[in-house]
Amino acid sequence: MKKKLLGKTPEELKTLAVAAGLPAFTGKQLAQWLYVKRVRSFEEMTNISKAGRARLAELYEVGVSEPVGMALSSDGTKKYLFPVNCPKASGLDAYEEARGNELEEAAVEAVMIPDEDRRTLCVSSQSGCRMGCKFCMTGRQGFHGHLSAADILSQFIAVEESQDLTNAVFMGMGEPLDNYDNVMRAIEVLTADWGFAWSPKRITLSSIGVIPNLKRYLDGSRCHLAISLHDPFSEERASIMPVEKAWHIEDVVRLIRQYDFSGQRRVSFEYIMFSGLNDSKRHGDALIRMLRGLECRVNLIRFHKIPGFPYESSPAPVMEAFRDRLGANGITCTIRASRGEDILAACGMLAGQHGKNKES
């Protein structure tokens, strides 16, 4: 199996170029072709000799995976389907060591959300998910493997809107902090001067609260954070989010309070509202107590019905009253607009397959 160059740092690319018999400066050239020009093949790297390109192609692959399908929503949202080969093991070197019989063929989805002058890409970090949230289609399909840094970055390069993207949210399939090394390598490429050169302010990572890696993320990144909270009561949260049994949401919030979010980095809490489950005054008051004094935002999300989960979304008046209650107690709270529901691209609906309508 050939090594993928996408996701490598300039120094790593230099080492691989020298190993292929090319000059050391080829590493810098490769980084520019991969991350600035965002090419798909060695043939496009015209400032590298023809013999050098042939040698690179013998040993390595660029690593960009083209989408195998796209679905277009009536609201302009696009959902792209990507093939991936996933090792079960985590870490950057898992892909270097894996062989064909150790890789699982799977598919992941990325969602491009247009909004006036913004183009936000919602990217996946795993095929399936190990967290098992009962209201999420991704979690219900089980875990198939971790995406490599190349698989993650391919989603940015191969979508039609690649050069027009303004923001990224790691809110697609998988738990980003469960695939920490590869996600952080992708973020390094996105924000490095030699990479995409994005400001960290353009990137938000969402997590259910994997505390050990959450601390590493907060220490090592200036990107935004979104925590999937969904219920302030531990026992109730555990009934729909098994992760609560390992990492309590109160401990997650306690950790977050140790960091400064008064500047450019922001923290938000995602709260899907289920009718009769987590939308009462009791829940609102508990959420207020949990978050009081923390510089944050709460995003209320309408639940998108999925098979096998008994609850419906809270009605709009209930969501509005919940929002107003939090706002009256000093917590910034908004109701997030739903996008792409007709192509199964909305929150909690990604499952590595397209909706039946508007598919190309």
Describe the structure in brief.
The chain has 360 residues and is α/β, with parallel strands linked by helices. The chain is 31% helix and 20% strand.
Strand order in the sheet with the most strands: 3-4-5-6-9-10-11-12-13-14
* Mean of all residue-level pLDDT scores: 91
Q: Within the CATH hierarchy, at the fold level, what is the topology of the largest domain?
A: TIM Barrel
Order of helices and strands: EHHHEEEHEEEHEHEHEHEHHEHEHE
The portion of residues assigned to helices is 25-40%
Judging from the principal axes of the Cα atoms, what is the shape?
Answer: elongated
CATH homologous superfamily annotation of the largest domain: Aldolase class I
- What's the end-to-end separation, in Å? 31 Å
Oligomer: single chain
β-strand number: 14
- Radius of gyration from the CA trace? 21 Å
Task: Quickly count the domains.
Answer: 2
Give the amount of beta strand, in percent: 15-25%
**Biggest β-sheet strands, sense, barrel:** 10 strands, mixed
Low-confidence stretches: 354-360
Work out the helix count.
Answer: 12
